[in-house]
Amino acid sequence: MTAAPALVVIGGGPRGTGVIERIAANAAELWGDRPLDIHLVDPYPPGGGRIWREDQSPLLRMNSMAEDVTMFTDDTVQLDGPVRPGPALHTWAADVREGRTVIATDPAVLDEIRGLGGQDFPSRRLQSAYLRWVYEQAVAALPPGITVHEHTGHALRLTGPAGGRQQVRIQGRAEPLTAELVILTIGHLDAEPNPVQKELSAFAARHGLVHLPPGFTADTDLSALPAGEPVLVRGFGLAFIDLMALLTEGRGGHHRNGTYIPSGREPVLYVGSRRGVPYHSKIGYTWQGERPPLPHHFGAAQVAEVLDRPGPVDFRRDLWPLVTRELGHAHYHRLFTAHPERTAMDRGDFEEKYAVAGPGSPELAALVASAVPDPADRLDLDALDHPLDGVRHASYDALQDGLRAYITADLERRHDPRHSPDLAVFLGLLSVYGQLTGLGDTGEEWHGFFSYLASGPPGPRLRQLLALSQAGVVRFLGAGMTVEADEEQGVFRARSATVPGARTAARALVEARLPGPSLRGTRSPLLSGLYEDGAAGTESGLLSVAPEDGRILDRDGRPHPRRFALGPFTTARSSGAFTRPRTGGPAFRQNDATARTALALLRDLSCRDPLTA
């Protein structure tokens, strides 16, 4: 009897679901009615995976509006396979409300679905229900010969010769899975503490303190943080926003008409970071009118030119000038087309001169100054990225007022369509990210800048932060935050550049950020084993994969014929977990390319060397 060939997909979250959806879409062309076994491996339920699982606090929300989240391709996606459209999150919710789609989920999630609007920010539990439905639709769309087998457990080891079948060991399973091909679609991973974190944890253990290293807030035990006591928090991004919610509303407090009513069980959070400010608010209005043509100054031709240069790509030298030119193009295109009364030059004349002015040059500065009279209408990426550079306060009390004013101004601007060039810059950021996916590991500078400017919290979360600040539950520390271990006094001490000379002591320190993706520091035995066996890792620790199809590269740059990888731990990582409808979706393109390559390889292998049971 001839056995069906097998494909193992490790990771059942959004990426794994996306790959299965693309296998279903391409199967008619590349696989036909042949039998195929797909083995999906994940310790968490498929669809949501770990990060988007339903079993988590309802306080934890997405930082995207429902209308900005889709798991389906459309005609803006550049792919070789067929487009298979489907509902965005808000449309799906409307289908559930009106009975066109039936799902089985928690009654509380159904209640949230009934009230969900397109511009609401759903809970992660609601998103989990959507992802589970998408997964079920993808499996149902597979041809009759393709069967999905779900395996609950961690994948521990991947072995096998490059020219032969692969073996995947799974936690709790005696025999490994054997397959022709393996696709890794693992999401964010835990990491071992680096030397600095180990020293801080050892210091905390010696003195009976609390140190919570970088990790996923939903999975962190916060019960060790005592009520009423100061807690130093290093990190002001989305991990902090989750921490803030769980330690305030999660401990019985509540918000009422812009005021926070404490429960008395909250700690006092002293928060700082490198920038000293929270991520910029999500933009609170939708696009109207003409879109900027993107890509314009940073497209496929510029990517090819960068790749043709000798030596490794340096982000600041080779890419940042292209990034700034593209973002400026998006910003000023919108300003001239939507708000021409705030410009003082013919648009065509400006664009012609802008195209030849060097990024950061005096000529460009003079051009912008003459064409855009109000400095508030000019794009200053350095000021956006480092708003507290050079800002000094005489006391922490003065800093509280200053930072509340900064957050209030950011909220007002990001919800005012008169500043719609900000939304054009957001679209430019998405376009740039799509181009950078073809360049491999461009370093953490770009990813951090993108997240800070484009992937910040919803406006309501920042309004809650203001209320918590007014209530004294959150205290701001400023930019350039550093933490010292005071052995003599047995406490952590924090200082910042924004309030020179001042220090804050606490018996607890929380590192409010995700662990960085690193093959050398991961807690995943699967990935560390791949690295030990010769898979290539970049300087910053990402797994190197071929940009055209996601095949894992060895240290000589050769693609593995039977192993693929996609996701945030690889050089093929994209701008976020989900795609906005009608924005091209580089992750969809990657999923499609990997699925098509895998199906073609499986077809060739089964024709060349049929397996017998």
UniProtKB/TrEMBL annotation:
InterPro entries linked to this entry: HpyO/CreE_NAD-binding, L-asp_N-monooxygenase_NS-form
Domain FAD-dependent urate hydroxylase HpyO/Asp monooxygenase CreE-like FAD/NAD(P)-binding: from-to ranges: 8-188
PANTHER family: BLR0577 PROTEIN
Protein name (database record): FAD/NAD(P)-binding protein
Lineage of the species this protein comes from: Bacteria, Bacillati, Actinomycetota, Actinomycetes, Kitasatosporales
